Structures are given as C-alpha cells and as structure tokens.
Fold this sequence. Notes:
The protein is α+β, with helices and mostly antiparallel strands and 148 residues long. It folds into 2 domains: 6-40; 50-144, Rieske Iron-sulfur Protein, CATH 2.102.10. The protein is 19% helix and 32% strand. It is built from 1 helix and 11 strands. The strands form 3 sheets. A 4-stranded antiparallel β-sheet has the order 2-3-4-9, with no helix packed on it. The protein has a 4-stranded antiparallel β-sheet with strand order 5-6-7-8, with no helix packed on it. Strands 1-11-10 form a 3-stranded antiparallel β-sheet, with no helix packed on it. A hairpin with a 4-residue loop joins strand 5 and strand 6. The longest helix is centred in the first third of the chain and has 28 residues, at 10-37. It starts with 9 loop residues before the first helix and ends with a strand. FE2/S2 (inorganic) cluster binds at residues 89, 91-92, 94, 107, 109-110, 112, 124-126.
Amino acid sequence: MSEKKPPTSRRDFLKLFKGLLATTGLAALIGPILAYFWPAKLEDVPSNPVAVGPVDSLAVGEGTAVAFGRYPAIVINTSEGIRAYSAVCTHFACIVKWNPESGQIECPCHDAFFEPTDGGVISGPAPRALDAIPVFVEDDILYIGGEA
Ligand code: FES
C-alpha cells in the first residue's frame, strides 16, 4: 500500500524560506571575512604586458591611469615620447596623478612633484624617482610592462 505524500504545507514552505534567508545572510557575513583573510592573488607587478590601448589614443600632453597588478600605473605621452610609471609615490605610497595643466606628476598627500619625462623628483618629500615601467608598441597597441 502506497502512502500518498501530502503537498508542502504553508508551514514547511516558510521553514524552507527562513532557512534560505539564514543561509544567504550567513554567506553575506562570512564571504567578506574570508576574502579579508584570503584575498585574491594579485601580482605586485604583472609578469605579462598590460595593454593600454591604441597607440594614437594618447595625444601629446595627455596621460591615463592603468590597472597594473596590485597598484595602478600612469602612462603619459610627453614631448619626449610615451612614458609609464608606477603610480605609487616613493614617499608614503599615495597614488600620484598626472596633471596636464602643470605638466607634472603630483602626489596629493604631501605635495611631491615628479618630472613626466623621467619620473624624477622636482620637489617635495619623495626620496627618489617614480619606478619606471617599460613601454612598447605592437600592432599599434600600446603596452606597458613585461620584458623590455
Ligand atoms: S606620499 Fe607622496 S608625497 Fe608623501
């Protein structure tokens, strides 16, 4: 004799729904904690070149920021050619920015200023030049990093 299974009652449905909500809430709490202790692996400096874009997309005097491993890089088309630097300030690691009006790379934290053509320190507390990143063009695409 087969016993017919009763249809899901409203009470069973609410139990299931509460369990689903509890599981989702727990995952929302635990996920960021796990991500904090086991962050995604990001190389400090990528081993492969990073594409910036078409080589003619940066006019002389323009600059752009590019994700470059764990930290950003800045790419500037200077009057002496395209240059790329780590955007990490050599003073206390703030992120520097290209200022096309002043024609300098600026650190907003303690007012360090850097030369766009060689990354050298113009003024401010930075102890040394920005780290240069190799630049090359392949098939009209501008790349930074990799083997130079
Ligand atoms: S962190 Fe850039 S000047 Fe201090």
